[in-house]
Design brief:
Radius of gyration: 25 Å
Strand content: under 5%
Number of helices: 12
Number of domains: 3
Largest sheet: none
Distance between the termini: 79 Å
Structural class: mainly alpha
Helix content: 55-70%
Order of helices and strands: HHHHHHHHHHHH
Number of strands: 0
């Protein structure tokens, strides 16, 4: 009787182990298959321009990038930040449900951003890839957040994000895409307007007298580079921070407070949470009416 029982037990144990092996194998097969599908989905965007430095940036490409890549990404970014705001204000009863919706948005916006191939357009092609990678990573983050306690607080979410590799990568890719976009606009300006310098000091420790001589396209590129370096993923756009800096100088506050560097103003603005989305639009008529800019919606009031 015991021998028969032992044989049956061994048989069930063996079957269980075999099933476990097949289950694990199936899981990794599915994971690998999913990754290959994603790679295949965006395969047409993986080939970069061999000589992006020599590319002549065109108004048409900048506008196409804005409409097909940047605008979908911006919509997602605002939705992501709005979700965090709702959680912070305890307006959400079920965090998992909210991030299920965010996951779907990330996937949809990644498809939108890949709908038009810009791989011929120098840094714009690289920026397109960065934004798509960011959205793919945000999709993973949203999926992981769904598994947390339904009553997770804002602090819980923030702690989870700090150690989430997908989130860190998503932010880095987003800021890289942003920097490449603003560098492309700067290169476009240099190729058309002789008043835009071909060499600039991108260090924010520079004196305000130097900063004030730069056109807006140059200032935007300096700040986009700074945001990437400091990994600042904010609601506001580079031109919003630029306009806050310029208004601080224009109003005489920098002189009154004896602040002589761009970095000094940024530190003060950051510490007081003084920069908000739309600050550029508020200050445009006063500071930037004569600026040479590409015909892109976010450079004009009440559009973005």
């Amino acid at each position: 009787m015991d021998k028969r029982f032992n044989r049956i037990a061994m048989l069930f144990s063996t079957l269980f182990l075999v099933m476990l092996v097949f289950a694990v194998a199936a899981f990794f097969y599915g994971l690998n298959l999913g990754s290959k599908k994603v790679e295949a989905k965006y395969a047409h965007l993986t080939e970069t321009d061999e000589s992006p430095v020599d590319y002549a940036y065109l108004q048409q490409d900048l506008a196409s990038f804005y409409v097909t890549v940047y605008a979908p990404y911006r919509e997602f970014q605002l939705a992501w930040n709005e979700a965090l705001r709702k959680i912070a204000n305890r307006e959400v009863s079920n965090v998992a449900s909210l991030y299920k919706e965010i996951e779907g948005q990330a996937s949809k916006k990644a498809e939108d951003a890949a709908s038009y191939n810009l791989q011929h357009a120098g840094m714009l092609g690289q920026a397109q890839q960065s934004y798509i990678r960011s959205l793919n990573q945000f999709e993973k983050v949203a999926a992981s957040l769904q598994k947390r306690d339904a009553a997770a607080t804002y602090d819980d979410i923030q702690k989870a994000l700090q150690n989430n590799e997908s989130y860190i990568s998503a932010v880095s890719q987003a800021l890289t895409g942003q920097d490449l976009f603003y560098r492309s606009m700067y290169e476009w300006g240099v190729s058309i307007d002789p008043n835009i310098p071909t060499e600039i000091d991108k260090n924010v420790s520079q004196n305000l007298s130097v900063w004030s001589t730069y056109p807006l396209l140059v200032k935007n590129e300096i700040i986009a580079s700074y945001l990437l370096e400091k990994k600042i993923f904010a609601d506001y756009l580079p031109q919003d921070l630029v306009s806050s800096i310029d208004m601080f100088i224009h109003s005489g506050q920098a002189e009154t407070m004896n602040i002589t560097t761009v970095e000094g103003i940024i530190s003060l603005l950051a510490n007081t949470s003084a920069v908000r989305p739309g600050d550029y639009n508020l200050n445009r008529n006063k500071l930037y009416l004569d600026e040479f800019l590409p015909q892109i919606p976010f450079f004009y009031p009440n559009v973005d």
